[in-house]
Design brief:
single chain; alpha/beta; Rossmann fold; 8-stranded mixed beta sheet; 7-stranded mixed beta sheet; 36% helix; globular
Length: 370
């Protein structure tokens, strides 16, 4: 199979879909790997490093897309890339299709087999390809929140750690999954008071044990959410429903309960966000203000730390890339139900039920189309 790795073109997206170790593994399995020139530069990977393990460097993105049977990326294609998608191509990347009907239409029209990192599951039902970037985004959420909490950048002027005689700031996290767990780790490390709102009693027990009671866990309901919002200096949205649009848990009216110049970080923005006032931003223009509350809603947060993110991501994606390249999609997904769950589009149809339901469309199973 010819596997293509284009340079990412989303705003300030410096990650790349393949590392040299992955290229070597693919080449050893008999595949051809095309890397767009300077695709890895943002992650500190030189073209020569790819060449040394058997990749071929291609000067233009169009050539990578047109020649490849499978394109391996990091982020979903944006408008400038739509015309590069080829009929019946395999696209392996984060897709986050639920809030993106326009991209969905393109994939269906071109009969692309779109396999989304974020809906692949493992034997325990976890999301192994979403986990590494959720870890990064969760840790970054408090870091960027603390930055924008500074007065010169629009915030309240609160130091999360406090100082002797002055209490620390409050970080309130909606959701106790991977993002919430990692956000709590960093917030605690910075000396903040940390609260996690979570719906699962079992998960609250796990978090209480993990943090030895240093994090307050509270049942997530509207009453408790409003209470948390009133004291939050940083409010982190960390709610995920695999494949679906994120639930809108905070309305604009609710937002008025927050302290002036407090900061919201919506890590769920890729799936539409869990605040009514969320809209995607970029690293070039990351924050905006609504009713006196700063919103940080960058849709590719881990792209700001690409060296860490690229290697963490490809460590997780490579086994699946190898399976798809060596066995083909049909055999690979027939042998791995978790990989089958990653197939979002195929043969002109949506094959992921949560995506279809989020867009009020019909879906068909992959098996019925193959």
């Amino acid at each position: 199979m010819i596997v293509g790795v284009p340079r990412e073109v989303k705003d300030h997206e410096y990650r790349v879909g393949m590392i040299p170790a992955g290229v070597k593994a693919l080449v050893m399995d008999g595949h051809t790997v095309l890397i767009e020139k300077d695709a890895g530069a943002g992650s500190g990977i030189l073209d020569q490093e790819y060449v040394e393990v058997g990749a071929r460097i291609v000067a233009e993105a169009d050539e990578v897309w047109s020649a490849s049977d499978m394109v391996v990326k990091v982020k979903e294609p944006i408008a400038v890339e739509y015309s590069r998608l080829r009929e019946q191509q395999v696209l392996f990347t984060y897709l986050h299709l639920a809030p993106l009907p326009e991209l969905t239409d393109v994939l269906l029209e071109k009969r692309v087999t779109g396999i989304a990192y974020e809906t692949i599951t493992d034997r325990k039902g976890y999301l192994p390809l979403l986990t590494p970037m959720s870890e990064v985004a969760g840790r970054m959420a408090v870091q960027v929140g603390a930055y924008y909490l500074q007065r010169p950048y629009g915030g309240r002027g609160t130091l999360l750690s406090g100082v002797p005689g002055v209490p620390p700031g409050d970080v309130v996290i909606i959701g106790g999954g991977i993002v919430g767990l990692n956000a709590a780790k960093i917030a605690l490390g910075l000396g903040a008071r940390v609260t996690i709102l979570e719906t699962s009693v079992g998960r609250m027990q796990e978090l209480d044990n993990m943090f030895h009671g240093r994090v307050v866990t509270i049942a997530s309901n509207h009453h408790n959410l409003i209470s948390g919002m009133r004291r939050a200096d940083i409010l982190v949205g960390a709610v995920l429903i695999p494949g679906r649009s994120a639930p809108k848990l905070v309305t604009r009216e609710d937002l008025r309960e927050m302290k002036p110049r407090s900061v919201i970080v919506d890590v769920a923005v890729d799936q539409g966000g869990c605040f009514e006032t969320t809209h995607p931003t970029t690293h070039s223009d990351p924050v905006y203000e609504v009713d006196g509350v700063l919103h940080y809603c960058v849709a590719n947060m881990p792209g700001a730390v690409p060296r860490t993110s690229t290697f963490a991501l490809v460590n997780a994606t490579l086994p699946y890339t190898l399976a798809l390249a060596s066995k083909g999609v049909s055999q690979a997904v027939s042998e791995d139900p978790g990989l089958l769950a990653g197939v979002n589009t195929h043969a002109g149809h949506i094959t992921c039920k949560p995506v279809a339901e989020s867009q009020n469309r019909f879906h068909k199973t992959f098996e019925s189309l193959d």
